[in-house]
Amino acid sequence: MKKALAGSLLALSLAGVGSAPAVAAPDGAPAQRAADRATDQAADQAAKKGVDFAGTVALSNCSGSVVRVPRSQPDDPALVLSNGHCLESGFPAAGEVVVDQPSTRTFKLLDAKGAEKATLRASKISYATMTDTDISLYQLTSSYADIKKKYGIKALEIEDDHPVRKRAVTVVSGYWKKTYTCEIDGFAYRLKEGEWTWKDSVRYTPACRTIGGTSGSPVIDHKTGKVTAVNNTGNEDGERCTLNNPCEVDRRGKVTVRKGINYAQQTYGIVPCVGHDSKIDLGRKGCKLPRPAAARR
């Protein structure tokens, strides 16, 4: 998971795992200028589709967004979506599911232009896992109505249907205040990285060259304007199924390595699991998110 940054050293991690230092190119370097031009072009495309930074957040090491599901009410506690590997406690082990753990983590809320509007605070980690998917959901001390009234910012809505192949999307990073625009190239039946395996992962076309710190960024579908996935990893070096080098595994067990290609985890499966007062209820009808080991017995 190469898409998270660890602490003040800005170490790249597997979209959270890793240890390769993030080193900025010198000002004016050709590679940096080219990257800046690509970023500006992506931002222009996103702006034309009405995609901006409103509702996104910056974590200490990752990106995220304030999200709601279609049934959420204004007075419900707001939720922040990011990656499971972005937890302040470190990566959950394969098979581990975190539910209702206290947290006082803070998030910098951004407005449409990427300016920091406020600091939001969590009351708990409602749900987090790196099993089958790579997500974390924090419950905030503020409601959706509080955030709208105080800061004029609405939560992003999570799409309740599967992402669509060839659909144009924008990855919106609150950490870097940058956007990456491309299409959904397809889906990986299984995506394996180190000890973790994810199901039905979203594969981007090459234009989404996401970097460390973009972990947890919402992936916005241009047609619906809703969150269709959450950015989480990519293959950096062409290695096979290692940290920072996920591989695709098809139904027959065939392994495919796509160097330089990045991935996200679909989010529509979250929607059935959110109940009254934003509570994550793994027993709700239609909820298929992984459960804690004790609940599976």
Question: Would you mind describing this structure in some detail?
Answer:
With 297 residues, the chain is mostly beta strands. The chain has a domain at 56-158 and 273-281: Thrombin, subunit H. The protein is built from 3 helices and 18 strands. It has helices at 30-48, 144-151, 293-296, and strands at residues 4-6, 11-13, 56-58, 63-68, 77-82, 97-102, 106-110, 116-129, 135-143, 156-157, 168-173, 178-193, 196-204, 218-221, 227-234, 247-249, 255-256, 262-266. The strands form 3 sheets. It has a 6-stranded antiparallel barrel. Strands 11-12-13-18-15-14 form a 6-stranded antiparallel barrel.
Short structural summary:
By secondary structure, the chain is mainly β. 10% of the residues lie in helices and 37% in strands. It has a domain at 56-158 and 273-281: Beta Barrel (Thrombin, subunit H), CATH 2.40.10.
Major beta sheet, specifics? 6 strands, antiparallel, barrel
Please tell me what the overall shape is. globular
Unreliable spans: 7-36
Query: How many helical stretches?
Result: 3
Number of strands: 18
Strand order of the largest sheet: 3-4-5-9-8-7
Distance between the termini: 30 Å
> What is the overall pLDDT average?
88
CATH class of the domain at 56-158 and 273-281 reads Mainly Beta
Rg computed from alpha carbons, rounded to a whole number of angstroms: 18 Å
CATH architecture of the domain at 56-158 and 273-281: Beta Barrel
Strand content: 35-45%
Output the CATH topology of the domain at 56-158 and 273-281. Thrombin, subunit H
